[in-house]
Every structure is written in C-alpha cells, then in structure tokens.
Amino acid sequence: MLERMRIFSGNSNLPLAQDICKNLGVPLGKANVTTFSDGETQVEINENVRGMDVFIIQSTCSPVNVMCMELLIMIDAMKRASADRITAVIPYYGYARQDRKVAPRAPISAKLVADLITTAGAHRVLSMDLHAGQIQGFFNIPVDNLFATSVLIDYMKKNYLNDTVVVSPDTGGVERARAFGKRLGAALAIIDKRREGPNESQVMNIIGNVKDKKVIILDDMIDTAGTVVQAANALKDAGATEVSACCTHPVLSGPALDRLEASPLKEVVVTDTIPLTERAKKFSRIKVLSVAGLLSEAVRRIYYNDSVHSLFI
After folding, report:
1. What pLDDT does residue 160 have?
2. What backbone phi and psi angles, to 5 degrees, belong to 232?
3. How far, CA to CA in Å, does 311 sit from each of 146, 148, 181, 291?
4. Distance (Å, rounded) from C-alpha 261 to C-alpha 265?
5. Which of 21, 71, 177, 226 could form a disulfide with 168 if both were Cys (CB 3.0 to 4.6 A apart)?
6. pLDDT for residue 204
7. What integer pLDDT is reported at residue 313 of this predicted model?
8. d(CA 42, CA 29)
C-alpha cells in the first residue's frame, strides 16, 4: 500500500531515517549526498521519483549550514525530478531560536530558513518540538509540529512517580512544563533567570517548592548546558534530593559535556532527533529515547492523508 512512498535522507541523522523506514517497511531511498573538493554540496538521486510522495528526513543540526544546504538541494532535486509531493521531515529545526528581533538590525533567521525551504520546493514540513510554536506561521505551506512528550512521559512514568516536581528552566517553558507535569501527576516549579548574553544565563530565583523532592528539569533542547547545569545547582541548593534533566533535542555544543559531567544531574534524558557524538555516547548519564515510532506514524498518516491530530496529544 506504500508503493508511491519514497523516503530519503541527508547525512544529518541516517540512523533515525533507517529506523523510520524499518517501522514503515519501506527501503531508504538511494541517494548520494557528498561534497565537491571545494565544499559544495552534491546530490545525486539514484532512483525514479516521478509522481511519488517523497519524504526527506534531515535534521538541521551541526554542522548546521551544511545540513541545511543538503536539505535544500535535495528538495530541489526532487522537484526537478517531478516528485508529486515533497515533505521535509525536520526532526530538529535549526535557527529556531532566532524567531524574532531581539535587538535593532537583528535578522529573523527562522523565517529566512522557512522561506528557503518553501522556495526550494517543499510542499509541507514535519518537525518536532519547535523552539517557538509561532514558527509554524513562518511557512506558507502546511506544518505539523509534533511533540516528543508521549515518548518522554512513558519513560518518566516508569522512573519518576513519587514526590516529583517538573521544573521549567525559564518562564518561556512554563506551558510545556505545566502540561508535562499534569500528565506525570507532578507539581510545577519555575526558575526565574536573567540572560546576560548569548549562551549565558544566571539563575535568579526558584518559584515553587522543591525541598526533599525529585526534580525533572524540562526543556526543548540542551545546547551548551549552561542553563540546565546552573538550574541543577540551584535546585540542589534549595533542597532537592535528586535532579534530572529531560529534553527533546540534545544539541550539546561547546562545553556542554564538560558541564554535564561536572554537574549534580543524576540523568539526562534526550531523544534521537539529533545523533550524539562519540564522546556523548560514552557519557553514562545520558539516556536516549527514540522518536522513530512517532515520526514514522506521522509519515504514514500524511501519506494516506489521514489526520495526525491524535499524535499531538
């Protein structure tokens, strides 16, 4: 029944693409995504896609600009090969943090990337836990923004049930933390922080009771880990018995691993929207959960033009 479906992947997250194909029972499309000697991205599609429903799986993670160009060129290649419909499956949408003007003469890069994807020829986008929900409005094509909550909550229910508090590391994540805590049956706390500069933050105050509680810090991503580690230290100082972190996107750039290794965090639960580096794979306190099942079900429903509403719950 999936004879018109074709799934391709760039180089950003081949293991996730392979898992999605395995769940759907379709082979990963034949494509060579390489570079010329000067660094230009080269794409060769080695099978017929004329009239096909094509899904391109590509997280725009590190190196972000390279992965973004791979995605754009693959979309263009499919469009010129007469694919019937092209869906960009972007588990991690890079540039999402640049979603508004935060200073005079600042760009809105999330909108620019959305325009590039649309202009390249994508007919729709499937993503996961966008940093800001309004990014869906940056596209002039349909966008399905899935949430990894269903994957994360199953693990948390098995391991964090009694005397648990879900903590939002900033005021922007309160809605996410409240919904997560409600499903987990946990209380809510908020960390009031003041950001001093890019990738820098200072914990100011904890709103809520965490004394003698198991605490889960919930965020959409962990980048340099400055926020989550400062939050963990503050929560321990406030009397939390143990502190864990939970996020969808393990960006883990710069000093992130050094900070996590030196932190009081008991566990860091992440998903595989971004593949871990070899060093991160050896860090025993990182637990990786797969979102391949959730994404493959969304791909299947999009192919059949079925509703994906239940996947957002």
Report:
1. 84
2. -60, -45
3. 7, 10, 19, 12
4. 8
5. 177
6. 67
7. 66
8. 16
d(CA 282, CA 203): 29
Q: Are strands 242-250 and 187-197 parallel, antiparallel or unpaired?
A: unpaired
Q: Which residue has the higher pLDDT, 194 or 103?
A: 103
Under 8 Å between Cβ of 232 and 226: no
Q: Is residue 127 classed as helix, strand or coil in its secondary structure?
A: strand
220: which residues sit within 8 A by CB, 6+ positions away?
129, 130, 131, 173, 176, 247, 248, 249
DSSP for 244-279? Answer: EEEEEEE---TTHHHHHHTS--S-EEEETTSPPPHH
Q: What confidence score (pLDDT) does residue 170 get?
A: 85
Beta strands 85-90 and 124-128: pairing type?
parallel
**Residues with catalytic annotation?**
193
Q: What pLDDT, on the 0 to 100 scale, is given for residue 199?
A: 60
Looking at per-residue pLDDT, the higher value among 260 and 313 belongs to: 260
List pLDDT tens digits, range 172-207. Answer: 889 999 999 999 999 999 998 766 666 665 656 899
Helices 149-159 and 292-303 cross at an angle (nearest 10°) of 150
